[in-house]
From TrEMBL:
It comes from Streptomyces longispororuber. This is MBL fold hydrolase. Residues 30-260 form the Metallo-beta-lactamase domain. GO terms for molecular function: hydrolase activity. Gene3D superfamilies: Ribonuclease Z/Hydroxyacylglutathione hydrolase-like, Winged helix-like DNA-binding domain superfamily/Winged helix DNA-binding domain. Keywords: Hydrolase.
Length: 350
């Protein structure tokens, strides 16, 4: 692993580089966009946040790796979030590269592009009310809903992918052995990409893993509900995430190349750590349910990176979604249940 002259570019060896593309005004700092050489031309894993400065850093980073953005052959997207998929349209326009994404996340992109904003506000207002959110929290959503049609700017819509990213299969990348591994949880269609080639520095283990947001060295990804107004399936994203962690741990990758923070070895150790973390967190939440609480009341009492009083409204909505994902899991495990007749529905430990 060597630092390439030029800020934020690392040569990971064996035709793999990372470029730290900044995310403006975000404590995460940057997305690690990876560049992978193939016999058909360079391929990107994720693209970074859609911002002019981020674009300049990506283009300069590619140049430092000896690549030109105009030569990109394809883009593999770990998931649809804007810090990963944001610059995809621009890369495609500059190069003609295809964009590949798992079908479940492509579905989210299509819905984001097509679903009228006012209906989305209405859906969120109903969900938050059902989760026990106070009227003051829901009011701005209702106002936005009632304001009527909010046009979306075409430039701000996420790019439609061109092809699926079929899980379990070796991808058609001449000269490379790269396999998509479906790892739902953080999003319904999140994938990790397993580079099934000997590690260039001969680290023990099986190849390298582009892990997106699924497996990160120092933080845990947000796990909320998969919001879909057209689908009433009761999903279990936290259960999906924990299953996906085990799946990734079993790959035994020699090194993990995540989309944030830094590369690290010993993937199975990190997986064990995260499984233990979530087990402890679930136990802690169950203890909070000694008396009945709505998802909102649970979120208020959960541990966040700052006191609840300092969390802005948008982030509170995300926090409640995370509380609900944990409640789903506890209910599924038979460790909590809904209080019959409660409105909004409250949950209690069993
Ligand atoms: Zn993400
Ligand atoms: Zn991310």
């Amino acid at each position: 692993m060597t630092q390439v002259p030029g800020a934020g570019v690392t040569d990971h060896g064996g035709g793999v580089w990372s470029i730290a593309v900044p995310i403006p005004d975000n404590p995460l700092g940057h997305t690690l966009v990876h560049l992978l050489d193939t016999d058909r031309g360079p391929v990107l894993v994720d693209t970074g946040w859609d911002d002019p400065d981020s674009w300049d850093v990506l283009v300069a980073g590619l140049a430092a790796c000896g690549a030109d953005v105009a030569d990109m052959y394809g883009v593999l997207l770990t998931h649809h979030h804007p810090d990963h998929h944001g610059l995809s349209a621009r890369v495609r326009a500059a190069s003609g590269a295809w964009l590949a994404m798992h079908e479940a996340d492509a579905h989210v992109v299509r819905r984001t592009r097509e679903y009228p904003m006012e209906r989305w506000y209405g859906y969120m207002a109903d969900k938050l009310t059902a989760a026990g959110a106070p009227a003051a929290h829901v009011a701005p959503l209702l106002a936005a809903r009632d304001a009527g049609r909010t046009p979306r700017l075409a430039a701000h819509l996420p790019a439609l992918p061109d092809r699926p990213l079929p899980p379990g299969e070796l991808l058609d990348l001449p000269g490379r052995r790269l396999r998509a591994v479906w790892t739902p949880g953080h999003t319904p269609g999140h994938v990790c990409l397993h580079l099934e080639e000997a590690h260039p520095a001969r680290l023990p283990g099986r190849g390298r893993l582009f892990s997106g947001d699924h497996l990160l060295p120092g933080i845990t990804p947000h796990i909320g509900l998969y919001e879909d107004p057209d689908d009433s399936t009761v999903t279990d994203p936290l259960g999906d995430y924990l299953d996906s962690l085990e799946r990734v741990g079993r790959l035994g990758a020699a090194e993990v190349l995540p989309a944030h923070q830094h590369a690290f070895a010993h993937a199975p150790d990190r997986v064990r750590e995260l499984l233990a973390h979530h087990e402890a967190r679930l136990a802690g939440l169950r203890a909070l349910l000694a008396e009945p609480r709505t998802p909102w009341q649970l979120a208020e009492r959960m541990e966040w990176n700052r006191p609840w009083a300092d969390i802005p409204a948008g982030s509170r909505t995300i926090a409640v979604s995370e509380a609900e994902a944990h409640l789903r899991r506890l209910v599924k495990l038979g460790r909590a249940e809904a209080v019959p007749g409660s409105e909004p529905v409250a949950y209690v430990a069993v």
